Amino acid sequence: METLLLDAKNKGATETAANILKNGGLVAIPTETVYGLAANAFDASACANIFKAKGRPGDNPLIVHICNMEMLSEIVSEVPEKAKLLAEKFWPGPLTMIMKKSENIPDVTSANLPSVAVRFPAHPVAKEIIEKAGLPLAAPSANLSGSPSPTTFEHCVHDLMGRVDGIIDGGACEVGVESTIISFVGEKPVLLRPGYVTLEQLRETIGEVEVSHAVLEKLEEGEKVLSPGMKYKHYAPKAQVTLIKASSEDYVKYVNEHSGEGVFALCFDEEAEKLSVSTVCYGSEFSDAQQAEHIFEALRRIDESGAERVYAHSPKVSGIGLAVYNRLIRAAGFDVIEL
Ligand code: TXA
Ligand code: MG
Description:
Blueprint: E1 4-7, H1 13-22, E2 27-29, E3 36-40, H2 44-54, E4 63-65, H3 69-75, H4 81-90, E5 95-100, E6 115-119, H5 124-133, E7 137-138, H6 153-160, E8 166-169, E9 180-183, E10 190-193, H7 199-206, E11 210-211, E12 240-245, H8 248-257, E13 263-267, E14 278-281, H9 288-305, E15 309-313, H10 321-331, E16 336-338
Parallel strand pairs: 1-8, 2-8, 4-6, 5-9, 10-11, 12-15, 12-16, 13-14, 13-15
Antiparallel strand pairs: 2-3, 3-7, 4-7, 5-6, 9-10
The protein binds threonylcarbamoyladenylate and magnesium ion.
The site of threonylcarbamoyladenylate has 28 residues, from strand 5 and strand 6.
């Protein structure tokens, strides 16, 4: 298939993207978190094509993106009070909320679940495209299933060229990790995926929030999960990755003692010059927001570098660091060393 490459800065580009989407096509679009592969959320066959283009398992539901609160009422059957509080505070923004779905959402979109994940993105290009299409857009991250989420136009081109109708360039994503996901379908709100909107912020706004154990731990074989995406291998680089929990000093010492051919350090900016192996940095030790912004790009660079053995320095496990840790521990296949 021919893939139309668009630049959001050019006149008419978002209009063109919106028209493709209205006609049942697929377009990769920028959001503030990561790029998303969008389709009309009401169109079952367009949504089925998302799964094909990404090689995504059919039981992994899609997030539906909206640009106003009227659209929300078309796709969910009711909005819990606590979800309203979070919407007031964090929408538009990098927060996804799971609620009971309305009949307008086809089963393919929600992977046969009775619920739907909803997000109101803040990115001006995403908002403009949803507004111009006049439709809620289903959009998972615009990567091939299993590879790191795309944070630039080039990442989308690398993964999806020839597999989708269009890709629109809106620059690099500022947040860099996918949205925080909170579920409102059970008795208590549950954090399913940490992101830029932190657990601390959620609790400040609505009180008690449980944390799904899949956020930090490996699932048991065959374990039933609230969020199907969590059971799949994610962000897995070709190299064998180990996550090291240690002070900067101990981390540097450990890696230098384990140097050798094909060994790489996935480290903080401040550590690079102290390391005797090849390095890929993912931000300052002192900025979890920077670490989130660069982590996926760093994982892609590790793959391109031909690394065989990677020692990644663990971020702190709070604030936005929880989101970075959650992605890294999956990249490491849950192989963690605590020094
Ligand atoms: O930031 C983001 O959320 C990006 C941008 C494009 O918006 N999207 C994204 O989508 O990360 P995706 O498909 O890569 O991740 C969606 C996650 C999956 O783990 C999926 O299982 C979960 O959300 N999910 C979607 N609908 C759900 C539902 N009804 N119940 C439980 N989990 C759901
Ligand atoms: Mg994804």
